[in-house]
User: What shape does this take?
Amino acid sequence: MEEYKIELTVRKLKIEELSSVDNCLRVAAVRAAKQAYAPYSHFNVGAAVLLSDGTIVEGNNQENVAYPSGLCAERVALFYAGASHPGIPVVSIAIVAVKDEEIQDTVSPCGACRQVLFETEQRYGHPVRILLCGRDDVIVLSSAKDLLPVSFFI
Assistant: This one.
């Protein structure tokens, strides 16, 4: 029998403790969330991806009455970044939820988005920092492995 120990470090910062780059990414995610198409859940999620060349790509959830035909904000942003900026590595992603024009407490990506984040790391050969942005705080994870320690690519 083999046994593995999984350790995780999570940082929780106040908004005012963010670097200027991370705050720009958070603001872009909020802007994206406010433009989401969420007529059924009324729960808008925005994601902003920072690429290694400094480009910020935004995405938001896109719902569809033929559930599960919609797509989460994280995958919209990551897939758009891959399609429009091929070969440029993803450095970090900020994720935020907005409901009734109010930023919500932190939300975490669904399982499918976790797997896409993990594969994005594999694709570019380095970790993607994840910022889970809430009203007052931001949870910072250093890698998608922190969200999905047991993945398809163990």
Q: What stands out?
A: The beta strands are 11-14, 44-51, 56-60, 90-99, 102-103, 129-133, 137-141. The two ends are 17 Å apart (CA to CA).
